[in-house]
Amino acid sequence: MLPAASFPGRIVVVDSEEMVDAACEDLQRYERIGFDTETRPSFRSGVSYKVSLLQLSTPTTCYLFRLSKIRLSNRILKILGSRRILKVGVDVAGDIRSLRELREFKADGFVDLQHEAIRWGIEERSLRKLSAIVLGERVSKAQRLSNWEAGTLTEQQRDYAATDAWVSLKLLDVLMGVKPNVEAPLTIIAVAAPKQEKSVGKGVKPRRRIHRKVMAKKSVDTQRV
Question: 10-41+48-213, superfamily in CATH?
Fold first, then answer.
């Protein structure tokens, strides 16, 4: 059995408005961060929940924003809308849709490993399989169906959530140190903010825009395209 992947850094649970500014101040210092979300599972037909947790991870610290307890504030949205700060994850479009159910915002600077893995000849796209192939480590999914709106997150939930976000960041770093089968820039995913009501009308969803951006093996080119 492969060894278990585990986030080795500090985990900070952000569950009050006072903690948001300090967390975002630290995150804004980085050019790449890991990204993921968690939602309370529903076991009844017709019952669903909104996203409960947003995970943003640097190499050394993972912040768990408890969106079931705090609002999706402008400070957080500034990071989610920044082209300079790349947010790396798996199936990021689905996570963005979930977050936009809480509040509409402009999303930019997202990188989806499901798209990028193709350039290295990797056909398996799930985070679990990508981790096994690229890192030789096992990502546990034991906590995926736990209650993410519980009063207090368990240690197992915190470790699981932090690892999921951090592993995406580690995967991209490792892949970029290896020559790909197909040379191409990273695909940057962006979703425009909704236009004013009189321009687009109620219920009209903005189209997703995908941009290209060149990245060197170990650094980010922050020039806008």
Answer: Ribonuclease H-like superfamily/Ribonuclease H (3.30.420.10)
Q: What is the pTM of this model?
A: 0.85
- The 10 Å CB-count burial string (b at 16+, else e) for 165-174 is bbbbbbbbee
Tokens linked to 86: 């790349």
Q: pLDDT per residue over 107-136, tens digit each?
A: 999 999 999 999 999 988 899 999 999 999
The sign one gets for the Cα dihedral 86, 84, 39, 151 is positive
DSSP E strand boundaries for the chain: 10-14, 32-39, 51-57, 61-66, 86-89, 107-112, 186-191, 208-213
Tokens of 64: 């768990």
Dihedral, 131, 92, 173, 12 alpha carbons, nearest 10: -90
